[in-house]
Amino acid sequence: MIKVEKVGFGFAEASERILDDVSLALEPYERICVLGPTGSGKTVLAELAAGLRAPDAGSVDRDGTVAYLGHDPRAGMVSTLVFDEVAFGLRCAGLSGKAVKGRATAALRRCGINHLAHSSTSELSASQQQLVALAAAIAVDPDFLVLDDPFALLDGTSAKLVATIIDDMVQAGVGVLETSSALERAMGADRTVLLGAGHRAWSGSFDDLLASDELLGRLGITDAADMVLLRAVSHEGFRFASCTKPDDIISFIKDNNLAPRIARSITPARGDATFTPAHKISLVDASVVYGTHAALGNVSLSVGDELVLVAGPAGSGTSTLAAALAGALPLDGGEVQLDGERIRPGRAGYLGGFPKDQLFSKTVRGAIAYGLEDSSKRGGTVDTDVTHAAGALGITGLLDRDPRTLSSGEQRLAVLAGIEALRPDAAVLDNPCAGLDAAGRARVHRMVQRMRSKHLPVIIVTGDVEEWLADASRMVFMRDGALGYDCDGGAVQTRTQPYVSCGVEPPLTVSVRSLAGMGTRRRDARG
Amino acid sequence: MAKVRIIGSYQPERTPLHGVDARAKIAFLPLAGIAVIAAHSWIGFAVCLAALAIAMLLAGVRPMQLAAAVRPCGILIGILAVLCALIPPSWAGILRGISLAVRIIIFTGFVLVVNATTTPTQLIDAYNLLLAPLARLVPNATGAAPALTWLTRLIPLVVDENARITAAQAVRGRQSPFSVATALAQVFSARGDAAAAMARRGYAGAAAHRMRVADWLIVVAGVAMIVLSVIL
């Protein structure tokens, strides 16, 4: 058992405690999902449970070995070679060379990344790095697994694999404590705990959480399509139990012929309309090669007055495409154009997969202001623009903080505030809502809407397709460094075929609509 | 044209130098440093350059990677060379400046070869084993292993961090000529992170094992470099 007894914790530089009088007990064979808004103390609770921090008050007792997986896979990495990284914990445990090799290989195979064993960890995508970290955690065969929002950076297909691995571990007797910013992760949990302002606000079953407007309101979730769907199936008699999966919901809907009725509650949105573009950003025959591996192979993509989603399985090149489009990555062939000319630095706002890499100033204020004074479009002062941008993204209170002390969600918001202040001619965002609570996600959506109201091109790489589906004009799929399907925004809300053919797990709402036979309203998908 | 591989990372290849014991490679570095400093003639420099060329060939490190590693420090190297040349102004001073730049580049090349062929965990294991005998005299001598590992990896870490910072600055439309200083500060502030991560995962030192004959040859090569640099 992991027994957390009345723990309290506060950072030295903060005036309020981030956790106060929180207790919970984790047994073998169970998964507890901890939900809560940003700043509620989820990460600190996970770190206390895993023994990475000591509480200021109370106690944490652990009866067994604990493996930990954080939301940033790079934070716990000790080696630059994938196999070495997975084998490290086994070597520390004193296993023989043969046993180390056997268990490390088995863990890599279980996570679907055995083919990456001899790759450099720094050259992997964020999803692949998270899978390496998971392989390292499961290789040591722990009694307990503590996960801090591990799905934040995962693409849909990797997320499904990781969820299956976690469920298998629970059924094999491992106790799992998982924090999450996504409601659906509580779906198959044995217990759900809600944190609010550092306190344990509620604990119960997912069914009870789903039925309570008040509790969902505390999470800021009121009308999200996935929540509406889950409530609809619950209303039809589906009961959420331990290790419930999205496939179980699909099977329930199919077996009971509920598809048309359920689908009516999640009708597709109109999506994003297009007008005359203010600007047009294009990749022209672009290629990026690492050693002998082509991360992007002669890719051409044009985006005008549109919001284009980009999705693909782990390692497909989605993040590389985003970095190349924004000019953050030099090309080995082809070029990036804005309005028909080679793009000049600073004209496309960019959020990378790891926002920490873009925060190099001493304060958040400095990071947002960087480059602004050179902008010829500036009407007001830099200070005014910084304050306004910080307010829009809800991080005014963080302006004088060192960016390295922020949570990953706060770092993401800081980079986005920088983009807001820069007033670029286009935006390329890599998983902009990863790790954010509902309030943070709403602010990011409003920021994107402001850009779209000016008819600016916006490209969003996302592992959580559901988050942006209602806003998308278009969606492109990637596989093995090349573009696959390029689909109308309406088609990808009702058809699973473009997802499946490119190895991307379709969102639950799309699967249900597809079951109900909902057709497209506009142009068909083109491959 | 393939992109120059990110500097600062172990290159997952299978080369002769990848198989050499990390202790031999660590021992070689100060020997190479002494040889580079001791070189006092163009023949001596040629010996060091030839040794570097052989090392790079055996490690699969390309000249472009060495250029990428040296470029961020290019301004500093240039300033040092100019100062040597001008204080006092003379042809001998100019030669002194050039030789200083060449020495720095050669030593950086050897550091790059070691980092390209040795994982961080192999480095820290090696330092632990090398420092273990000292533990009888100095309590917790092996506690210096993480710091020494960090120092060994300093050049490639700074080059890698500098590449990240310059890319981030480029996207904001303004590049700072002092990004290397920022990169050094970032790397310095994160110097304990890897060691802390290893400790969290239960690292408690490396198991002792003997070096092979081939490993000792690397050490002998380092000594030979010093001898040749001094006498030639």
Give the tags:
heterodimer, A: 527 residues, alpha/beta, Rossmann fold, 6-stranded mixed β-sheet, 19 helices, 19 strands, disordered C terminus, B: 232 residues, mainly alpha
SSE string of chain B, helices as H and strands as E: HHHHHHHHHHH
Structural class of chain B: mainly alpha
Number of strands of chain A: 19
> CATH superfamily of the domain at 272-346 and 427-432 and 461-527 in chain A, called what?
P-loop containing nucleotide triphosphate hydrolases
Oligomer: heterodimer
The share of residues in helices of chain A is 25-40%
Largest beta sheet of chain B, briefly? none
- In CATH, what is the class of the domain at 272-346 and 427-432 and 461-527 in chain A? Alpha Beta
Measured between the Cα atoms of the first and last residue of chain A, the distance is 52 Å
Shape of chain A: globular
Number of alpha- plus pi-helical segments of chain A = 19
Q: Structural class of the helices, strands and pairings of chain A?
A: alpha/beta
Strand content of chain A: 15-25%
N-C termini distance of chain B: 40 Å
- Rg from Cα of chain B: 19 Å
* Overall number of domains of chain B: 1
Shape of chain B: globular
Strand residues, percent of chain B: under 5%
Count the helices of chain B. How many?
Answer: 11
Mean pLDDT of chain A: 89
Largest sheet of chain A: 6 strands, mixed
